[in-house]
């Protein structure tokens, strides 16, 4: 079973920031938080991951609470192409041979 | 990021035939690859872990004799759906570990069994 809880759906206006929350209250000390997204009929796309510090890359920012029990993925300026299902996954970070376990994710709809 | 190529992207076959799906890591070597299945409006479900040079590890409820996995090289894993039936129609996706312990996914194969 997935170790994360996400809202089933969210809407966001085009050009605005999309803030996607994730609860992972049972996360272990050696588990990272990964975010992927899946655009319709495609394979999942890696977005970002982190352990305890906030992270930023060209796609998004990841904010992890100090107690690490929750996190927020931020898409700073959402576009229509960001419409997708976003998955928050926790996994032991240094074990690349451990599969990702997907929950139901959040379906983000970016509206013009 | 690393590229995982999956082929074919779409296949339609008659019931009872076998279908082979290929998963290649194009710019890196992958000793381990993963195969997932996704039914409409559902999330990805792990089917099996493919290990180069050894037998695959299957998840509970996945028939190993029906879903044959071969990982004969560091860049190629294949999934063969044997004697496919309509209930095997699904979206099959593979993944492999690239740099930074990040899993990269193929584009998926949509299988339709008539």
Give an overview of the whole structure.
The complex is a heterodimer of chains A (112) and B (114). Chain A is mostly beta strands. Chain A has strands at residues 9-13, 18-23, 31-38, 45-50, 55-56, 61-64, 70-75, 84-92, 106-111. In chain A, the strands form two sheets. A five-stranded mixed β-sheet of chain A has the order 1-9-8-3-4, with no helix packed on it. A four-stranded antiparallel β-sheet of chain A has the order 2-7-6-5, with no helix packed on it. Chain A is globular, with a radius of gyration of 13 Å. The mean pLDDT of chain A is 93. Chain B is an all-beta fold and 114 residues long. Chain B contains no helices and eleven strands. The mean pLDDT of chain B is 93. Classes of the chains: A mainly beta (112), B mainly beta (114). At the A-B interface, strand 4 of A face strand 4, strand 5, strand 9 and strand 10 of B.
What characteristics describe this protein?
heterodimer; A: 112 residues; mainly beta; globular; B: 114 residues; 7-stranded mixed beta sheet; 4-stranded antiparallel beta sheet; 0% helix
What is the topological layout?
The complex is a heterodimer of chains A (112) and B (114).
Chain A: E1 9-13, E2 18-23, E3 31-38, E4 45-50, E5 55-56, E6 61-64, E7 70-75, E8 84-92, E9 106-111
Parallel strand pairs in A: 1-9
Antiparallel strand pairs in A: 2-7, 3-4, 3-8, 5-6, 6-7, 8-9
Chain B: E1 4-7, E2 10-13, E3 19-25, E4 32-38, E5 45-51, E6 57-58, E7 67-73, E8 76-81, E9 90-97, E10 103-105, E11 109-113
Parallel strand pairs in B: 2-11
Antiparallel strand pairs in B: 1-3, 3-8, 4-5, 4-9, 5-6, 7-8, 9-10, 9-11
